[in-house]
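pasting for ref
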Amino acid sequence: MHNVLPFWQRDGMAIACSFAMQHLRFLQYVDAVARCGSFRGAAERLHVAASAVNRRIQDIEDELGVCLFERLPRGVRLTTEGELFVAYARRRQADLEGVLAQMQALKGLQRGTVKLAISQALAPSFLPRLMGQFQRSHPKVDFEVKVLDHALAIEALQGFEADVGMVFNPPVRHGLDVLAKMPARTCAVMAQGHPLAQRASVGLKECFAYPVVMPDASLAGRAILDRVVSATGLHPNVVLQANAFELMFGYLRHSQAIGFQTRVGDEAPPGLQWVPIQERRLHAGTVALLALPQRVLPACTAAFAQHVAHCMAEA
């Protein structure tokens, strides 16, 4: 390998110049190998020959004077230097996407893709409504949405798999910028024909007189419910636990069971009814709009984030 300084000891502008536009493709090679864990998997993802991927990675390693990947009997693994470089590569790719989107916006094209990572509670109605509103005035903008629990949504942001995230009850220390937030209360959810469906409010004790559907521990709302149940000493008859709201909603439509969901917006899922819960121990959660600190968002994403922030403020 050439005797050169490690990349983190060089001037940032010099690196940017040395990795000119043709090198951005090589950064994609590094990112793909890191995500796939092998040259062959990265080659299939990039639609190139595995030998080409291997050769480009070796070229970059020679240029940097470090090994990015540890070669294993089956696949590869990032070295410490490789982890640093992959983070750099993802930042550069994300920044380039933002610049290209801004250039398109300056030309009046208003094209682009908004990449989101969201909590499940936002998927049935709240986010689709916001996307539809936004696309009416920005018809050339499309969306890529990952529906994840709040921890994985934050990982997607940190890994540049999404540009912004909307999550319920993010961890206290998440290292992200909060662009907007709003309170969100947990409500009882039941079929529209349920005996309690027309009540103005219900207590947990009344809910637990019926079979109960609970989100599993991977969903943020479960921790809130567990704390309240423990404090009240109640013992619900849990007939279903799941990590997918669509499954829980489908079960509720065909049973006398009662479920629980964070209420975001005004529309209950089709065929179901929201009923507020009167329980002083059941504190409101928070829905937060998040982005990486100092991240320059693509123009279409920044515009959509502003639209979401406005709607959250009104809500």
